[in-house]
Amino acid sequence: MGQTPKCDVHTDTDPTCGRHNRIEEKTRQLKRAPVADGTLGRYAKSFKYWEKFCNDFNFPVWIDELPRGEQARMVGLFAGLCASEGHNRAKVGNKKTFDGKMAAVAFAHKAVRNAMLDYRDPEFELIAQGYKRTNSQVDRKQPVTTPMLRKMLELINLTEPQNQLLWGSMVLGFFFLDRSSELWGPHGKQVGTDATNAHSIEVRFKSHKGDRIGKCAVIRHYRTSDPALHPVKAAQACLKVRGRWLADKVALGPYLTSVSRKETIKKSRVANVIKTAAKSMGLSPKEYSCHSLQIGGACALLAAGKSDLVIRLMGSVHQAPGMVRDAASSMIKASTWELHEPNLMQLEGEPANLTQGNQA
């Protein structure tokens, strides 16, 4: 009782066997569907870090059969490892990355062992709360402002295709609050990359942190009067570079920012451009990172009158509403001079005359 019946003989003339196999395959697909493909890749990397931790200290990798106290002890030590050494070049970990790693460990136990972890005892809760408090205010990043985006554009040589892709992805990240890994390639019938009548760009998120059950959130931005900070032109530039490379038989991955089969525009390149622009404007480079693009876009939307709830649902913005408002206030002050420009960019909202239904 409780065992799944198996079909040992596979023949084309046995409809019961074929039906059973189709149902099993569909069940396996459903088992993989709770998380997005990109998340599965991150889970695999995080689980390897857990495996290394267990092997280094002679702990079992699978801990579902251990008593709750032993599970909590192991996970607490893992939290200490993440806090003291991290899993990056800086050897510094934060609470959110630890939570992500433990989500990977819990998912692996569900998928492989059909087991739930039970490690949240009072001692672990103390460790987790202490972890959260000790680094909650460490290296909080500042938002990228529109003047900074213009400075970044001055630093990029747009005659190079890869630099065109870099700039386009940065503009899209600012407007859509996304990461490079969330920008997959085009799907469906597309407007030509040179089309001048394309008035909007639409990004469909099959799954993201504001849409956990994958209802396919759709976010749209329209043309702006600013020729530099223009989401439609940014998308067209990325699609044009990708189309040119594919025509030249370059093997590309599924992402819009792919530069090869396995690589995309590196975060380090994006961060370097942002930090260089900050330094040239007399700001501290340490206060800026790739995440500053998302924060800047969120602050710009808030400054334009959008609610903090909509912004949090729209993108993976982790700041509390008060923090977003404070950052938005600083961003408005930094960009005050632009409010009097004739080319003030329209961040969101439908223009008065829309005659074309094309999307980039």
Account of the protein in words:
- With 360 residues, this protein is mostly helical.
- The chain has two domains: 34-135, DNA polymerase, domain 1 (Orthogonal Bundle); 146-340, Orthogonal Bundle (hpI Integrase, Chain A), CATH 1.10.443.
- It has helices at 15-32, 37-56, 68-84, 95-113, 122-135, 146-155, 161-176, 231-247, 267-280, 291-303, 308-314, 321-334, and strands at 200-205, 217-222.
- The protein has a two-stranded antiparallel ribbon with strand order 1-2.
- The model is unreliable at 1-5, 317-321 and 331-360 (pLDDT under 50).
- InterPro entries: DNA_brk_join_enz, Integrase-like_cat_sf, Phage_Integrase-like_Recomb.
- It comes from Phytophthora megakarya.
- This is Tyr recombinase domain-containing protein.
- One of its GO terms (biological process) is DNA recombination.
The coarse overall form would be globular
Number of helices: 12
Q: The CATH topology of the largest domain is what? A: hpI Integrase, Chain A
Strand adjacency order, main sheet = 1-2
Helix fraction, binned, reads 40-55%
Write down the domain tally. 2
In round numbers, the mean pLDDT is 76
Number of strands: 2
Strand residues, percent: under 5%
One letter per element, helices H and strands E, the order comes to HHHHHHHEEHHHHH
Q: Quick one: CATH class of the largest domain?
A: Mainly Alpha
The computed structural class is mainly alpha
Give the CATH architecture of the largest domain: Orthogonal Bundle
Protein name: Tyr recombinase domain-containing protein
GO molecular function, one term: DNA binding
Organism: Phytophthora megakarya
Keywords: DNA recombination
